[in-house]
Specification:
The protein has about 180 residues and is α/β, with parallel strands linked by helices. It contains seven helices and seven strands. The protein binds S-adenosylmethionine (SAM). S-adenosylmethionine binds next to α2. S-adenosylmethionine (SAM) binds next to α2. Pfam families: Methyltransf_12 (PF08242).
Length: about 180
């Protein structure tokens, strides 16, 4: 996942669902002064991640990525959606709208990338299967219906240049806008 950030992040980066900001803290930025915008539904996440990333002076936006959202007209070279889709409700066609909502803010030739835990089409060890059940019960994950083939179909419907790889239970994707 970190390699995905290193490979795809641009000088102006939009991160959807940044969590703790771990990857933006650790990845290799293109520029010594990257412009970073963080989008999340949860204001506590935004406070925590922006504090961790304060050396970059990130902008924060409290938004629901499942609906189209405004970012004060800002445009970005990349958008990251790491470990976001498996948290979202609905089927893959519904979750994939996030690609459209992100793409609206990314310049032509920019990158959209991330990863998600899938339920089918990938390998699950015994412990992973148990954890997947528990996380879905708790509502932390909502990915019981998420299949590799459906994710690939949604990427293929939107992007001509994309890459989808699988590591264990996780699908990693990157696409050129
Ligand atoms: C599992 S965390 C991902 C953390 C981070 N990207 C990483 O890879 O370490 C999922 C993040 O998505 C956010 N999130 C979940 N649903 C969302 C929604 N509908 N709109 C915006 N953010 C959402 C959560 O608040 C959380 O910060």
């Amino acid at each position: 996942m970190l390699a995905g950030y290193d490979r795809n992040i641009g000088a102006r980066h939009l991160d959807l669902g940044p969590g703790t900001g771990f990857f933006l803290d650790r990845c290799r930025h293109r520029s010594p002064r990257p412009q970073i915008a963080l989008v999340d539904l949860n204001p506590t996440v935004l406070t925590k991640a922006s504090t961790r990333l304060r050396r970059f002076g990130p902008d924060t936006f409290e938004r629901d990525v499942l609906s189209p959202f405004e970012l004060d007209g800002k445009r970005f070279d990349s958008a990251g959606l790491n470990f976001l889709l498996h948290c979202l409700p609905g089927g893959m066609a519904h979750k994939a709208k996030v690609f459209d909502h992100a793409r609206a803010h990314v310049v032509p030739g920019g990158r959209i990338f991330g990863s998600t835990v899938l339920a089918t089409g990938v390998a699950h060890g015994k412990r992973a299967r148990k954890l997947l059940g528990e996380l879905n019960e708790k509502g932390t994950f909502d990915n019981r219906g998420d299949a590799l083939a459906d994710l690939e179909a949604e990427l293929a419907a939107r992007f001509t240049d994309y890459r989808l790889t699988v590591r264990g239970s996780v699908a990693l994707f990157e696409a050129r806008v």
